[in-house]
Amino acid sequence: MTKVLLVTGGSRGIGAATAIKAAADGFAVAVNYRTNRDAARAVVSTIKETGGKAIAVQADVSEERGVLGVFEAVDQNFGRLDALFNNAGVIHTNQRIRDYEVATLEEQWRVNISSQFLCAREAVKRMATDTGGNGGAIVNMSSAAARIGGANSLMAYAASKGAIDTFTTGLATEVAPLGIRVNAVRPGLIETDIHDDTGDPDRLKSLVGMVPMGRTGTAEEVADLVVYLLSDRASYVTGTHVDVGGGR
Ligand code: NAP
Question: In ligand 1, which atom is closest to the CA atom of 161?
């Protein structure tokens, strides 16, 4: 019996690293992406080259239609779901409170919050032991920004991740009796493309001095934590928010 993992936003960065490491840990992986088909296919090829099973699934998970499509693809290709990594997320350009426009705020709430609620809803329907499922594990992507607040730059992004911390606490409590564990990871400054979207090409360089370990982190360092939380090795871990940020 091969366990099945869905990674949203699995084409690049932390999602891609997690898909590859989870496959090495024995999961069959559905790699969701929104626009970057070649990158998603490259992740699938890497997994298949090492004997793993994977598919790439295009969908915008900030829309209900996209979420339903991804889960249908998982049902059709694998016939079961054991784990969900709610990873897809976007950042916005650096702004202060007087600059925020409704469109920016709505995109942050839709992509960073609603997508995680909708994907969790579909995952729980399939995993819950009271309706014949086998139980499972969910990891929600939060951020150190949820603690730090994002003042003067990324406050809406930070607030969206704060909502994920609260969601994680609530969902973990609600679905523990259904055999499902739910945890959040809160990465700090991780070397991925997402920082380009803040409009500050030097973002990592200018903030790294605030990290006690004195360096940025890699997608692989976050992926190791996520795969652990999704695995049976974390069988008594639920409702936590785990920081992976070099001490910041
Ligand atoms: P990234 O390299 O920019 O990758 C983002 C991924 O999300 C891509 O695979 C992208 O798909 C996908 N995506 C975005 N919107 C989507 C949507 N509506 N539907 C489906 N997929 C969507 O970013 P990353 O740094 O790996 O970030 C992943 C998560 O970690 C995000 O939630 C981010 O907030 C969080 N995080 C990152 C850091 C950091 O320092 N990097 C720190 C804390 C938290 P396409 O390739 O098709 O565009």
Answer: 34
